[in-house]
Design goal:
about 190 residues, about 0% strand
């Protein structure tokens, strides 16, 4: 696979530099630190089209830092997507975030191995099932839609759909950009 060029801050035009600065100075700053060489995840690829990268970045900020779902349910949805697409960087990064939110290791490991996760509650079960069904069929059956609507409410159900769609985009970007795990990290899937 042809690797995307690794863009460094000094290589960027004004629009790209503004996006870089927005990413590293925004809500991700605490978890990202200050990159000295290049941006990880989908961001290096998104610097190729900074007008889109800004929209993608803002959508991710909203879904992560303004979520209607609790952190465990949000990260469960994201990990379900990452595991489905075997997006190593995505799964690696969000497994760390899921642990920080208190998502049990048994759930993370079940997602990694393709098993049904031992969810802690009905909200997690519904979030995972909605994400799973969307990923496998592109739909949510009537019974699951009704149960999720009752238990989560329509706004949270829409957010689960948005998480799945957004993190599919991120997973695809990571795949095409051949985003690698940080040096020293073992592959998640052989």
């Amino acid at each position: 696979m042809v690797e995307f060029p690794k863009l460094r801050h000094g290589d960027l035009n004004d629009e790209q530099r503004a996006l870089w600065d927005d990413i590293v100075e925004g809500p991700r700053k605490a978890s990202m630190g200050t990159p000295t060489a290049e941006l990880g995840g989908p961001f290096n690829a998104w610097l190729q089209i900074p007008s889109f990268g800004r929209i993608g970045s803002k959508m991710g900020e909203r879904l992560r830092f303004g979520s209607l779902l609790d952190g465990r349910a949000r990260e469960l949805a994201i990990l379900t997507v990452g595991a489905h697409w075997k997006a190593e960087y995505e799964f690696w990064a969000h497994a760390r975030m899921a642990r920080a939110e208190g998502l049990p290791e048994a759930i993370i490991e079940a997602l990694r191995t393709g098993e049904t996760p031992p969810c802690e509650n009905e909200t997690q079960r519904l979030v995972h099932q909605v994400a799973h069904d969307l990923l496998h069929t592109g739909r949510v059956c009537d019974d699951l839609h009704a149960a999720a609507s009752r238990a989560l409410g329509h706004p949270k159900l829409v957010e689960v759909v948005a998480l799945v769609g957004y993190y599919c985009l991120v997973s695809f970007t990571l795949s095409v950009a051949d985003a690698r795990l940080p040096e020293g990290e073992a592959p998640i899937w052989p």
